[in-house]
Amino acid sequence: MRQKENKGKNGQYRIISIIYMIALLLFVGLMVWMNILPVYLLVASIVALGLITIFTVPVLFSEKGKLKRKKKARVVACVMIIVLAGISYYMAHTLAFLNSISGYIGDVNADRKSIQVDVTEEPFNILVSGIDVTGDIKTVSRSDVNMVVTVDPRNKEILLTSIPRDYYIKLPSKNAMDKLTHTGNFGAEETIGAVENLLDIEINYYVKVNYSTITNMVDAMGGIDIVSPYSFDTHGMSVYYHFDEGPIHLDGSHALAYCRERKSWVDGDMRRNENQQLVLEAMIKKATKGSTILFKYGNILDSIKGTIETDMKKSDMTDLVKMQLKDMASWNISKQAVKGTPQMAYCYSLGAEASVVARDDASVKAASKEIERVMTI
Question: CB–CB of 208/131 below 8 Å?
């Protein structure tokens, strides 16, 4: 009777060891496939898992092993199965997310690949374009947010350069004057070309987001905290909000409203640029907090799927993650905005005059020079 009971327990232990080995192989396979961990961390992880396996699996498989040792090995194996399965889920989730957004933009010229760089060794410019719609990112619409993110990976410096949505620029494909926001109606290539010509820079990568990206991501993170430099009420939106001066907590819809407001100030577009940078900075800080990454990582990825696209390769994204994991360095983030003067001018897209922000050459030159400084290794 006892012999049968022992055989039954041995069978259970072997099943547990087999499940453990499957979880282990899946975990190691995903680590190698994603290629996110630095080599020393990858090797250290594999060595540590190998040692645990050596002292666990043989004990579980042995028919003559001591029951006390087998029970301890079972506990270790069960804990490791849960840990490995959880981490594997997050890695698979990340891989699916990167596949869903990488190489998604269809209207950007393929020749742009020639100006993409080694993102861990060379400075680069990313154009962040936020279109004024919710839902599917494939929708073609006006580009209400136009921000150049200049990244120097060697010196760990990030420069945010905002351009007013109504900035008066030349449409590259039409050789006609219009608002910057209207370039979005002609596709990503038009927006990229207009910004490159304005600032005399080269855009290496492009990221497109919309209203849903902001609201969904902020809600998935549990909201963000900012210090508002002024009190104001929103205008011209379906829901109206009041914001107090000082520390405030924003959910997704409040964060979007804070970013969009411009009618509360005479220099509306310039103030809106500042507010957008304030919200973006708060989102970055919240997203990189340990508690957010541990407990809300999956929710954040799910929340922005289908609302973001980029021409940055998946390998570039994983290289950036690997670099950060390797050195765990802090980044210096600075901000600037191109200035201008409100006036009436003819807009090609409208076929009539409209309110625009006239170019301030000194401001444009200063912004361009600052970008050049960060780009110079």
Answer: yes
Q: Residue 70 corresponds to which amino acid?
A: K
Rounded to 10 deg, the angle between the 39-54 and 2-34 helix axes is 170
Interstrand relation of 332-337 and 157-163 (parallel, antiparallel or unpaired)? parallel
Predicted structure pTM score: 0.78
Token pair for 332 = 């210096």
Q: Is the dihedral of CA 287, 134, 315, 87 positive or negative?
A: positive
CA pair distance 306, 316, nearest whole angstrom: 20
The CB-based long-range contact list for 234-243 (8 Å cut-off, 24+ gap) reads: 234/260, 234/261, 234/264, 235/261, 235/263, 235/264, 236/263
Other C-beta atoms lying within 10 Å of the C-beta of residue 313: 16
The tens digit of pLDDT for each residue in 43-76 reads: 888 899 989 998 888 888 777 767 788 888 889 9
Distance between CA atoms of residues 4 and 238, nearest Å = 72
User: Sheet harboring 332-337: ordered strands across?
Assistant: 308-310, 205-210, 124-131, 143-152, 157-163, 332-337
